[in-house]
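> example.struct
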């Protein structure tokens, strides 16, 4: 191809990340959150961000090539949810989604304890994903009718994606429970190990009371969650775990020791090279 032809067929133009207003691509962008709505959006955004970071560990480690792709796509979906929610939350204080992700310390994160739990065993990862995705499906269905336009827009996009996440986790739960004696034993143990961190997802508090019609009331999501799991456990011939709830306090910034290690890995590059740009 001649130089003239290369110039004529320059499909890429002169575009850089710095020149692209990525925030305009986010669902629900363009509005400023109140402090209360920002705190609520931070809770949901932190959940998605931390779980996305956790799932990234599985890239190149999944038992099948197709699973590498599936888990990676789930992680990217969650990262997209986190970006939208944290961008919206940051409008209350003038912070970007990157500021929210990389320049807060452990007590400032408001994620639930479930997403902090180790998932380096495949069964643990699937059990964690089953519980969290079943919760998120109920959450985003409720938020589609939120009085806050930004939360409703984010939920409308996210609910389609988390429905796939749930289906993926359900299929693997059934596969492991109906496989070998060893796979069944291990998924039962994984479900039991993750179960103590479920109750925190459904606790109401003063913030929720003050956002009636805006936030999804956690306790109202529990019946749908329980019905989903009951159907899965019945098909897999599994019993509902009975482990006692953990004394979790993630919504108030009280975390397990696990979160510090997750943040250290996630934040080190931004903190090592502050202000760096691509």
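> example.seq
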């Amino acid at each position: 191809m001649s130089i003239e032809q290369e110039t004529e067929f320059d499909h890429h133009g002169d575009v850089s990340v710095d020149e692209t207003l990525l925030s305009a691509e986010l669902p629900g962008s363009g509005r400023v959150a109140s402090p209360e709505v920002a705190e609520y959006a931070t809770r949901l955004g932190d959940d998605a961000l931390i779980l996305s970071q956790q799932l990234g560990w599985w890239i190149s480690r999944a038992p099948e090539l197709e699973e590498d792709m599936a888990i990676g796509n789930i992680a990217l979906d969650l990262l997209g949810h986190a970006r939208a929610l944290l961008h919206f939350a940051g409008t209350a204080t003038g912070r970007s989604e990157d500021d929210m992700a990389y320049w807060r310390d452990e007590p400032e994160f408001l994620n639930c304890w479930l997403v902090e739990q180790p998932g380096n065993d495949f069964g643990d990862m699937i059990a964690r994903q089953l519980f969290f995705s079943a919760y998120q499906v109920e959450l985003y269905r409720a938020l589609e009718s939120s009085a806050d336009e930004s939360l409703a827009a984010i939920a409308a996009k996210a609910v389609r994606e988390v429905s796939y996440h749930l289906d993926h986790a359900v299929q693997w739960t059934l596969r492991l429970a109906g496989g070998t004696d060893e796979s069944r034993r291990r998924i039962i143990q994984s479900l039991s190990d993750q179960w103590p961190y479920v109750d925190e997802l459904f606790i109401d508090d003063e913030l929720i009371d003050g956002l009636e019609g805006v936030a999804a009331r956690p306790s109202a999501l529990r019946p749908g969650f329980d019905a989903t799991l009951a159907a899965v456990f019945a098909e897999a011939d599994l019993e509902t775990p009975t482990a006692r709830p953990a004394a979790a306090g993630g919504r108030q910034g009280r975390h397990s020791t696990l979160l510090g290690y997750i943040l250290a890995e996630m934040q080190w590059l931004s903190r090592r090279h502050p202000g760096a740009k691509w």
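> remarks
DSSP finds ten helices and no strands in the chain.
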